[in-house]
Amino acid sequence: MIKYQLVCCQDHEFEAWFRCSNTFDVQSAIHQIECPHCGSVDVSKSVMAPKIARAKERASENDISWPTDVAATEAEITEVIRRFRADVEARSEYVGTKFSEEARNMHFEDKPKRNIWGEATVEEVRDLIEDEIEFVPIPRLPEDSD
Ligand SMILES: [Zn+2]
Fold first, then answer.
1. pTM of the entire predicted model
2. How far is the CA of 51 from the centre of ligand 1 (A)?
């Protein structure tokens, strides 16, 4: 059995089970698959992964989120981190060692929110977590020096 995410000509999404991948092609070709919402037989496989679609819906212009690519090898993971960091650096203000202070100010003083990045000590990171201040750790890259 195989489960497909399907979409009709009116953008209704639904899921259906088929015996094998060919069954869908055959049944849809002879118009045996009906949209449960509107009865349309013009049905195709949904190309959007539901998870990615939802993430995109929520993301606003200023949101920086992890790339959704699936990385397998170490080189690929490094590349994903590198792109993520380039995105962060391009779209947020570098505040250096004041990161924790700035993040705290935005959280507690109701200062206008903006994207910042910088450095924090282990203690600062622990305090941010304890105070439930949101941040995203950026992993080090091989070329980073201490
Ligand atoms: Zn429909």
1. 0.47
2. 21
